[in-house]
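Batch job 17 of 40 flagged for manual review because the log was empty.
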Amino acid sequence: MGCIIVAMPKLEDARKIGDMLWRKGVKVSLTCTLASEVLYEAQNAEEGIVICSVKLKDMGYMELAGYLPKMVDIILLTHDVSMANELDNVVNMTMPFKPSDLVDTVNMLIHQHERILNKQKESLSKRSGDEKAIIDRAKFILMEHDRT
């Protein structure tokens, strides 16, 4: 699993959520208050999850979501039940929530990332008919070259 980042406007809130996740067996990479810190940490990860509120000290979640790498999703903690979300990489979670609900959501996203990464690896390992023909032709040329 890549990085798991908790970002809230108040550092003590981020730490409480991070500690709660840690107690439930989820390793948190960073707790912070700034989207710039989130972006710095996320750029070094192949994939990950950001748990944050609607607004951080330096930008909102929508702007943050636009800057994150493709395989980094956001779990948005909000008090607004009716808040609609149009972004693919954002999952809404209404506060207050049960710790087990947050852990389940994190685990769901982790498994989703694993499935996507496995599919990408499988597709890279499979060669098309044209690629196989080119490789077979190259092998034939090398074998003919070795005979002479």
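Reviewer: the log was empty due to a logging misconfiguration, but the result itself is present. The domain at 3-147 is CATH 3.40.50.2300 (Rossmann fold). Unflagging and moving on to job 18.
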